[in-house]
Amino acid sequence: MTPQLLKIATTFLLGGLVSLITITNPLSKIPLFLSLSADQPLPDALREARRACVYAFAMLSAALFAGVAILQLFGISYGALRIAGGITVAILGYRMLFGNGDTMLPRGRGHAFAFFPLAMPGIAGPGALATVIGVSTELAELGSPLQQVVGYAASVLSIALTCLALCWVLYSARWVSRLLGEEGINVVTRLTGFLLICIGIQFIGSGIRSFIAGA
């Protein structure tokens, strides 16, 4: 692999991983998962966690590959998508920093909760989908097909690693909840919210640059 391809792979792998881990905020999913699985035996709860992560991986990967086609279908520019995605991410970050970032998620219990509400909108929510589609616009602007292949492979790997991390956290939900306590999870959520605001502003700045370059 040439240095340029290695740089592309590293950029999209690490950039996608950091962005997705930050925006999905695995620790914030612990209260939701514990609430939904409270009346289930542990094996059944863990099965739902696995299925939720598989569903989330499928949805985020589909958004990565179909994102550009959807934008072209509706005539949405890359710059507009990045700005809209940045605003969405920043708003979610604001809610996590100053309020409850997961207040939109239902808290009801049920035997089958892997797809809704755990996978969507719990994991693959508006912010995560906007982030992945934003990455797809950056991939579409790479210079050569080989660079795009490397970029897509690195991005898919970042999605897979994010879902694996989420699965591990959900598997360890009861232990992590006891270890950190409600206050510890709250602190992590606030810090993550601040990082999301920074990522959202970065997306907005990238979108504005795209608008200026295309003017």
UniProtKB/TrEMBL annotation:
Q: How does it sit in the membrane?
A: Multi-pass membrane protein
Localization recorded for this chain is: Cell inner membrane; Cell membrane
Membrane as UniProt keyword: yes
**InterPro entries the record matches:** Multi_antbiot-R_MarC
Q: Does the keyword Cell membrane apply?
A: yes
Q: Can you tell which superkingdom this protein's organism belongs to? A: Bacteria
Residues crossing the lipid bilayer are 52-74, 80-98, 110-129, 149-171, 191-212
Pfam assignment, any one? MarC
Which controlled-vocabulary keywords does the entry list?
Answer: Cell inner membrane, Cell membrane, Membrane, Transmembrane, Transmembrane helix
Per the record, the major location class is membrane
Q: What GO CC terms are in its UniProt record?
A: plasma membrane
* NCBIfam families reported for this sequence: NAAT family transporter, PRK10995.1
Recorded family membership: Belongs to the UPF0056 (MarC) family.
Name the UniProt record assigns to this protein: UPF0056 membrane protein
